[in-house]
Write a structure and sequence with these properties.
Layout (H helix, E strand, L loop, with lengths): L11 H12 L14 H12 L13 H12 L14 H20 L3
Helix pairs in contact: 1-2, 2-3, 3-4
Length: 111
């Protein structure tokens, strides 16, 4: 996979994550933006490896909020029910846990 971008716009950490992503066969174009820091890029890369795309959330959410979205996506939760940049990560966590509990309960009830 060949992805072209201006390497001079990225710091060492960002470049390393972009290179790892490409080497693993993933397309990092959703997060190859200099304003997206290395930690957010790392979260996006991990999400891609699990079949999820965080790119639409990267610019408007904090690291902590993104982690709640990433975990929800990985758990097949409808993150639109709590993905709101105006909510704190703690509130998002509580909403995610409530949704996960409800799904677990439905599964155990045979629904």
């Amino acid at each position: 996979m060949t992805t072209k971008f201006d390497m001079t716009l990225f710091d060492e950490i960002q470049l390393s994550i972009i290179e790892d992503c490409i080497a693993a066969g993933f397309n990092p174009s959703g997060f190859v933006k200099p304003e997206i820091d290395g930690f957010k890029m790392q979260l996006a890369y991990h999400a891609l490896r699990n079949g999820n795309d965080l790119s639409s959330y990267l610019q408007n959410y904090t690291h902590e909020q993104l982690e709640q979205i990433r975990v929800g996506l990985r758990s097949n939760i409808d993150v639109s029910q709590y993905a709101d940049p105006n909510l704190t990560a703690e509130v998002m966590h509580k909403k995610r846990m409530s949704l996960e509990f409800a799904i677990g309960k439905r599964r155990s009830d045979g629904k």
